[in-house]
Amino acid sequence: MASSMLNRADNLTHFRGVTPTGLGFLGSDFHGKRISKMGLVSSLSVSRNGTIVAPKCSLSASRPVSQPRFIQHKKEAFWFYRFLSIVYDHVINPGHWTEDMRDEALEPADLSDRNMIVVDVGGGTGFTTLGIVKHVDAKNVTILDQSPHQLAKAKQKEPLKECKIIEGDAEDLPFPTDYADRYISAGSIEYWPDPQRGIKEAYRVLKLGGKACLIGPVYPTFWLSRFFADVWMLFPKEEEYIEWFQKAGFKDVQLKRIGPKWYRGVRCHGLIMGCSVTGVKPASGDSPLQLGPKAEDVTKPVNLFSFLTRFILGCMAATYYVLVPIYMWLKDQIVPKGQPI
């Protein structure tokens, strides 16, 4: 079933001697190798040897961020995780967010001192936090999430017993300005109604010289994957991450590509955890970026019919992204190593 849904032309075309134009940044492939300065890289993939390649998939603009997807609402996301928290660590992570991926994605955060103050925003069940406390004392780490059901799972994990665990909103953090040495957020931005506001908050809570590390999805280029991504939740393009960080005031913004090893560099279908973006806070105080009111007011009453429709359609779209890693894993078993998949 997954094979028939995802069937497409998988040959890859190499770009030789062509420098893409657009917003530039320093990136890396799945194995951490540096890539030359690139632009609009969401249309590109990177092979094992660092060669920039482009899949034969049509490109189109993603839905505007101002048009939230069905689960890109705080209340829908709350109930989505009310049920997903039951199987999150056992069903979702093995296909999309492995321990190897986590450790590679956290490497650019420079967790170099056990006494660092770290906030893990959207920390959920604490899977990413387990990677953080390898390098930082748990008593110095705060896990924040809007889902009490996810946080209940984090509280059960022995290495996280000394962490502070609080409910909160990524777009309105309950931390003072210039508070933390590191801001980490993994697998959370896809549910933010206003991602720019969340990244602005990351800037505010960091100390001078502090670093933010945001790990999240990348937008698909294959038409069917693109459709389900736009129905389900926010899959930003790589250059959008860079733009949000720069607008918030961050300097030395870098993006590192990550992905399950069985994807073997293929990014046509998008990745729920596809990149790690970092930036350094160059000055004390709040972000210089000025924003208007929040995109979503959670205090307003919800139309039950509208809520249920969005929730059901969003969950149906999410099912597709359960099939994608199964398809890619099977393909990795069938196609000989060294050949593009």
TrEMBL record:
The UniProt record lists the keyword Membrane: yes
Domain MPBQ/MBSQ family SAM-binding methyltransferase profile: from-to ranges: 69-278
BP GO terms, sorted: methylation
Domain of life of the source: Eukaryota
Gene3D superfamilies for this protein: Vaccinia Virus protein VP39 (3.40.50.150)
PROSITE patterns cross-referenced by the UniProt entry: SAM_MPBQ_MSBQ_MT
GO MF terms held by the record: 2-methyl-6-phytyl-1,4-benzoquinone methyltransferase activity
Membrane-spanning parts: 307-330
Span list, region SAM motif III: 204-217
Chain spans, region SAM motif I: 118-127
Recorded family membership: Belongs to the class I-like SAM-binding methyltransferase superfamily. MPBQ/MBSQ MT family.
Name under which the protein is recorded: MPBQ/MBSQ family SAM-binding methyltransferase profile domain-containing protein
Organism this protein belongs to: Rubroshorea leprosula
